[in-house]
Amino acid sequence: MIREPRPQDFDFHCHSTASDGSLTPAELVARAAACGVRRLALTDHDTLAGLPQARHSARDAGVELVTGIEWSVQWQGRELHLLGLGMDAGCQALGELEAEQQQARRLRAHRIGSRLDRATGLGDSYERAAELAGTNAPGRPWFARVLVGAGHARDMNHAFTRFLRQGQCAFVRTPWVELERAARVVREAGGVPVLAHPVRYGLTRRKLRQLLAALCEAGGGGLEVAMPGLNANQQGLLDECLRDFPLCASGGSDFHSPEQKWLELGRLPDFPQGADTVLERLERAA
Ligand code: AMP
Ligand code: MN
Ligand code: MN
Ligand code: MN
Fold it and tell me: What angle do CA 128, 51, 275 make, to 5 degrees?
């Protein structure tokens, strides 16, 4: 029997305007509180920049804010996402890795811009995306918005399939941090590394298990098993992985914008019965 999403009092995966979300950190925390979320991790892509504003707003709203980030990492030549949860934001190694990843994002954004200029004739793709994002390291969703706005794609998804995703003309291979090092830095900062949305990489069961073995080998962590949109097979696969590997269970909506009508902050399926959860692990660490 599939466990359906329902309102929970936690959400350990979401995005603000500090990366590619559409709500400011303050708006996001307020929305989470209104949804009944008492423990929230803001996990912007490769940045902690939203944290001060989120903290401030969390104090007012009575929400417990867990320090979070979503690293873009590489493993066996694939691009994957690794969450860091419950870190000490002042840790030096964390700040260093954040700076490196931002530098990689800046270089990548310039290269994406040049390629899109060539493909579309726009001439200022980078500048437009940077302006929209409000940073000099705009991620692909901002380029997608530029493409939609200029009439080169029908919607965001079309912009990705036509230009931005792997195999398309504006995909730029990026030297993201290795999975093992990102996991080490998260643990060094007192946090738990968690493999994000494990079913979204198109991995076979065998490859996924190899990946989880590598994460365990590199010191362990967690697996995001409570997420919206899973079918029965996927939920079964993740439950099985959780039984077979010494990883804790995490959960999050990956909320980016209220326009994603099919998901909401804190709307998640229950954890499988008896799972060791990241909530307990963070409590033990505190
Ligand atoms: P980046 O971090 O720059 O590599 O961009 C990846 C982000 O793009 C993901 O975190 C999603 O938020 C977004 N994304 C990926 N694929 C799509 C898609 N097909 N349509 C809309 N957004 C997407
Ligand atoms: Mn995103
Ligand atoms: Mn992700
Ligand atoms: Mn995410």
Answer: 115
Whole-number Å distance between alpha carbons of 193 and 262: 27
Residue carrying structure tokens 């941090």: 177
pTM: 0.98
Output helix, strand, coil percentages for the chain, rounded to the nearest 5.
Answer: 45, 15, 40
CB 86 within 8 A of CB 52: no
SS3 85: strand
Strands 267-268 and 222-226: unpaired
Other Cβ atoms within 10 Å of 46 Cβ, number: 25
Residue 140 beta carbon below 6 angstroms from any ligand 1 atom: yes
Name all domains of the chain by residue range, CATH numbers in brackets.
Answer: 6-98+176-285 (3.20.20.140), 101-164 (no CATH)
> Within 10 A of 63 (CB to CB), how many other CB atoms are there?
21
pLDDT of residue 1: 85
pLDDT of the residue at 236? 97
Whose Cα sits closest to atom 16 in ligand 1?
160
**Cβ of residue 141 lying under 6 Å from some atom of ligand 1:** yes
Coil, strand, or helix at residue 270? coil
Asked if residues 175 and 73 have their Cβ atoms less than 8 Å apart, the reply is no
For the Cβ of 160 lying below 6 angstroms from any atom of ligand 1, the answer is yes
Q: Which ligand is nearest to the CA of 108?
A: 1
Q: Is 45 close to ligand 1, i.e. is its CB under 6 Å away?
A: yes
Calculate how far, in angstroms, residue 234's C-alpha sits from the geometric centre of ligand 3.
17
CA-CA-CA-CA torsion sign (135, 138, 141, 143): positive
Q: Which residues surround ligand 2, an ion (CB under 5 A)?
A: 20
Give CA–CA dist 145/273, Å, rounded: 41
Task: Give the other-Cβ count within 10 Å of 52's Cβ.
Answer: 11
HSE at residue 16, side-chain half, CA atoms within 13 A, is 24
In this model, does residue 286 exceed pLDDT 80? no
